[in-house]
Write a structure and sequence with these properties.
Bound molecules: coproporphyrinogen III
Number of domains: 1
Structural class: alpha/beta
Helix content: 40-55%
Strand content: 5-15%
Radius of gyration: 19 Å
Number of helices: 15
Order of helices and strands: HHHHEHEEHHEHHHEHEHEHEHEH
Number of strands: 9
Low-confidence stretches: none
Mean pLDDT: 96
CATH class: Alpha Beta
Shape: globular
């Protein structure tokens, strides 16, 4: 695949002729063809059946003509494959049967040393064979976001239980976060072995951390995941939600491209991410998912604004500021893809 590909160029901070666009959660419940495939298969079965995972990965590329595919799976798939009991509860997300409540639980978890990556690699291979020139993005969770699903009996507000655990048991936290990093790194490696050409590391819940705690408890573990993708020669997009206060620290963890949510304009994000003149970074984002439900004119103007802000970065990949909501109208997403492609 040529590095002239607009998405692959942009990830590395080089401005392509055409601004690339894809969407987080482009494969999923907003697509009728996805809902049809999922009626007979639960989420984790779909994720671990190569033909199904590949087909779902390809659906949005066929439909929208987006510039990248993201591997269809979930951040907890490697833990499921490692033998942990987990269910993806509609409206809630992953729920583990035996959550981490104290340091002993970390010893139990870390005794799971890895997982068989075959079904992941096979799914990526099947998808890449049809994708041809369109790159496949591998993805995995950053350790804080993955650990936040493992710790505590319920999902607490602002991830209080996960943060309390890290303060109460720093050694156990570090062992848990390092184990999560190794699982995410192995998950990325399986997708890259199947042909993925970029990786996105999701730290969706990092915005709940203070700067001090991010540096003390998380950044070194996130770096393990990002370094692992780099070791396979693959560039990385690093994304967090509500992370405006952490963007400079996230940038220091080493990814080529920073994903920005809708809460700050991309131009402001660029000022936080770049350390000085000549320091030119790629950014990804940051259409407000709420405008998918606004009028055509409001949507059009919002996209024009996002594109103008994106000009302030070395390179810009258009995306939403977080995933596509399940009730979004695919016709509106198509309109956005077309507007971006017609823009330059
Ligand atoms: O972006 C894509 O199209 C690729 C697929 C993808 C999914 N999950 C599919 C999915 C990706 C990249 C993820 C990552 C993921 N999973 C994250 C990080 C990204 C983010 O959204 O911040 C997180 C936090 C999870 C955990 C998770 N899994 C949640 C919160 C949910 C939603 C639960 C719900 O019902 O609202 C899931 C389930 C999930 N993952 C679905 C999909 C399509 C829905 C399950 C279904 O279709 O039944």
């Amino acid at each position: 695949m040529s590095e002239q590909n607009s998405f692959l160029k942009a990830v590395r901070g080089l401005r392509p002729d055409k601004t690339p666009v894809w969407f987080m959660r482009q494969a999923g419940r907003s697509l009728p063809e996805y809902r049809r495939l999922r009626t007979d298969n639960d989420m984790l079965t779909a994720c671990t059946t190569p033909d199904l995972a590949a087909e779902i990965t390809l659906q949005p590329v066929r439909r929208y003509g987006v510039d990248a595919a993201i591997f269809f799976s979930d951040i907890v798939t490697p833990l499921y494959l490692a033998g942990l009991e987990v269910e993806i509860v509609p409206g809630k997300g992953p729920v583990f049967s035996d959550p981490v409540l104290d340091p002993k639980d970390v010893d139990r978890l870390t005794s799971h040393k890895g997982f068989d990556p075959d079904c992941i690699t096979q799914a990526a291979q099947i998808a890449c064979a049809e994708l041809d020139e369109t790159p496949l993005i591998a993805f995995a969770a950053a350790p804080f976001t993955l650990a936040s699903y493992l710790i505590g009996k319920t999902r607490s507000k602002n991830h209080l239980e996960a943060r309390a655990f890290m303060h109460s048991y720093p050694d156990a936290w570090n062992r848990l976060a390092r184990w999560c990093a190794d699982m995410s790194a192995a998950f990325l490696a399986a997708q890259i072995a199947g042909g993925a050409r970029t990786a996105q590391v999701f730290d969706s819940w990092v915005g709940d951390l203070s700067r001090a705690d991010y540096q003390k408890y998380c950044s070194e573990h996130s770096r393990v995941v990002i370094d692992s993708a780099h070791a396979h020669g693959v560039p990385v997009i690093h994304f967090g939600v509500g992370a405006a206060s952490l963007l400079d620290l996230m940038r220091d963890v080493g990814a080529e491209c920073i994903g920005v949510d809708w809460r700050i304009p991309l131009g402001e994000a660029v000022k936080l991410i770049e350390h000085g003149p000549g320091d030119r970074f790629a950014v990804q984002g940051n259409i407000d998912p709420a405008i998918l439900f606004a009028s055509q004119q409001v949507r059009h103007e919002h996209i024009v604004q996002v594109l103008a802000e994106g000009e302030k970065a070395a390179a810009h990949i258009v995306n939403l500021g977080h995933g596509i909501p399940p009730n979004a109208d695919p016709a509106i997403l198509q309109e956005i893809v077309d507007q971006v492609h017609e823009s330059r």
